[in-house]
């Protein structure tokens, strides 16, 4: 079964995308791991590399000033195709890599040790790799260190996934939603991809808690989140920003289109009363803003 998963590329990519980590900002737990491996193994470069369909993307990278490279020249592509560590003592003497542009040009890779990052269900989504610019060997102790830190990387990915969801409503947590907002700003700055941010606040929510009790208030939050989620398209997302406040990111949409979308969601809320001890019609107030070149970061967009 595990061997089969090495060759099931659609399922491997699905496992990677479930983490919702690609193109997210740097995070200290991953940077601590790569920094420690860089120091312990005495290598100039160490990275947490996630192998996507056409690229390898670095969740953390020490010693290399880039966020991604093409997958077809990636050493880590070879690592995710096997269960054991990949060791390259001299890339110039290895026919798989001797003419690789990352060997012949910057960063001039000559040695590499990488261990696959395997999910609990057995899919290799990336690699933790140590890279040198001179030939060298890596012994069993080095590999054991990489494997232990690689397991910590997977643990962090799993914990990050848990933290991505609001415990009550099941939508994205504030932290995860903010990461998505940051990613949309970056995509606009790099590729000009339009998107719009909607925030909404349930009207008079305190009176719901005061009148019906907090369990009823929780039921309203769950129902409102479900109704808003039902209107989303494939690349859209919703998050709970705190209390009764939510945010929606609408991909590839102008401010005018997002305003129409917000009106549809508003209508969904008001159309059907929520069944509490008596039917309650819930309304909400909305704000809409498009991403623009004048927005340097997510705080300004909010």
Strand content: 15-25%
Largest beta-sheet characterization: 6 strands, antiparallel
Question: What is the topology, as strand order, of the major beta sheet?
Answer: 3-2-1-6-5-4
**Uncertain residue segments:** none
Q: Count of DSSP E strands?
A: 12
Count of DSSP-assigned helices: 11
Give the helices and strands as they follow along the chain: HHHEEEHEHEEHHEHHEEHEEEH
Share of helical residues: 40-55%
Q: Rounded to an integer, what's the Rg over CA atoms?
A: 23 Å
What class do helices, strands and sheet pairing give?
Answer: alpha+beta
Q: For the terminal residues, how far apart are their CA atoms? A: 46 Å
Shape call? elongated
Query: What does the average pLDDT come to?
Result: 92
| Oligomerization category of the chains in this entry | single chain
What do you see in this structure?
By secondary structure, the chain is an alpha+beta fold. It is built from 11 helices and 12 strands. A 6-stranded antiparallel sheet has the order 3-2-1-6-5-4. The chain has a 4-stranded antiparallel sheet with strand order 8-9-7-12, with helices on both faces. Strand 8 (237-242) and strand 9 form a beta hairpin. Helix 3 (28-40) packs antiparallel against helix 6 (140-163) and helix 8 crosses helix 9 (214-230). The chain starts with a helix and ends with a helix. The model has no long low-confidence stretch (mean pLDDT 92).
Question: What's the topology here?
Answer:
Elements lengths: L1 H4 L3 H10 L9 H13 L4 E7 L3 E8 L5 E3 L4 H5 L6 E3 L12 H4 L6 E8 L5 E9 L7 H24 L10 H18 L3 E8 L2 H8 L1 H17 L6 E6 L2 E7 L3 H17 L2 E2 L3 E2 L3 E7 L7 H4 L1
Antiparallel strand pairs: 1-2, 1-6, 2-3, 4-5, 5-6, 7-9, 7-12, 8-9, 10-11
Helix pairs in contact: 3-6, 8-9
């Amino acid at each position: 079964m595990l061997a089969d998963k090495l060759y099931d590329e659609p399922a491997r990519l699905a496992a990677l995308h479930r983490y919702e980590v690609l193109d997210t900002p740097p995070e200290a737990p991953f940077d601590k791991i790569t920094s420690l491996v860089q120091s312990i193994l005495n290598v100039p470069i160490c990275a947490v590399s996630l192998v996507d369909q056409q690229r390898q993307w670095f969740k953390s990278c020490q010693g290399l000033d880039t966020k991604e490279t093409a997958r077809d020249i990636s050493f880590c592509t070879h690592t995710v195709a096997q269960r054991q560590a990949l060791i390259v003592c001299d890339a110039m003497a290895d026919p798989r890599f001797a003419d690789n542009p990352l060997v012949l040009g910057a960063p001039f890779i000559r040695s590499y040790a990488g261990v696959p990052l395997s999910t609990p269900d057995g899919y290799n989504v990336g690699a933790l790799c140590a890279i040198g610019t001179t030939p060298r060997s890596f012994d069993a102790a080095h590999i054991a260190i990489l494997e232990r830190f690689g397991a910590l990387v997977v643990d962090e990915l799993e914990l990050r996934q848990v933290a991505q969801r609001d415990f009550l409503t099941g939508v994205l947590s504030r932290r995860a939603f903010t990461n998505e907002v940051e990613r949309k700003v970056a995509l606009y700055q790099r590729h000009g991809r339009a998107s719009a941010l909607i925030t909404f606040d349930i009207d008079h929510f305190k009176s719901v808690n005061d009148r019906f009790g907090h369990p009823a208030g929780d039921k309203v939050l769950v129902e409102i989140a479900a109704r808003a989620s039902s209107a989303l398209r494939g690349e859209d997302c919703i998050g709970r920003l705190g209390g009764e406040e939510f945010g929606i990111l609408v991909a590839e949409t102008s401010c005018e289109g997002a305003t129409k979308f917000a009106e549809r969601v508003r209508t969904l809320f008001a159309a059907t009363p929520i069944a509490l001890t008596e039917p309650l019609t819930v309304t909400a107030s909305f704000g809409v803003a498009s991403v623009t070149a004048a927005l340097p970061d997510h705080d300004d967009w909010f």
